Amino acid sequence: MHIKTDLQGVLIYLALAGYAAAFMAAAVKRRPSIVQACFACAFAAATAAYIVRWVMYKHLPMQNLFEVFLLMGVLIWPIALLTRKLLKTHTISMTLGDAL
Questions:
Q1: What is the pLDDT of residues 30-89, one digit of tens each?
Q2: From CA 70, how far away is CA 86, in angstroms rounded?
Q3: What is the C-alpha to C-alpha distance for residues 70 and 31, in angstroms, rounded to an integer?
Q4: What is the pLDDT of residue 79?
Q5: Hey, what long-range contacts does 34-42 have (CB within 8 A, 24 or more apart)?
Q6: Which pLDDT value is given to residue 46?
Q7: Which pTM was predicted?
């Protein structure tokens, strides 16, 4: 395995780093604004990687497991926001669970 240096690879690594930063911010600093900012940056990077994949291969990226996991990376933050809104709570365990 080698490090991907193309645009899609860099965007995926940025998304992974953003989600890891959100987890660390939630675990250590317990400041929701920093966690949400990290989630937003990771979401933007994951969405950009998904769009790049779509443009590169000229089909909806849902045909193999890599593309499905890429979509899951895009949907983590919206699902976390939806669950927080539906449950109407905000605890540190919920924030840590969102970041995982």
A1: 677 888 898 899 999 999 999 999 999 888 888 889 888 888 888 888 887 787 778 776
A2: 25
A3: 27
A4: 81
A5: 35/95, 35/98, 35/99, 39/76, 39/77, 39/80, 39/98, 39/99, 40/77, 41/14, 42/14, 42/15, 42/16, 42/17, 42/18, 42/73, 42/76, 42/77
A6: 92
A7: 0.79
Return the closest-CA partner of residue 95 out of 17, 53, 13, 37: 37
- Can you tell me the distance from the alpha carbon of 28 to that of 34, in angstroms, rounded to the nearest whole number? 11
- Residues whose CB falls within 8 Å of the CB of residue 48, separated by 6 or more in sequence, listed in order: 11
**Count of beta carbons in the 10 Å neighbourhood of residue 86:** 8
- Separation of alpha carbons 72 and 69, rounded Å: 5
Which tens digit of pLDDT belongs to each residue from 1-15?
688 889 999 999 999
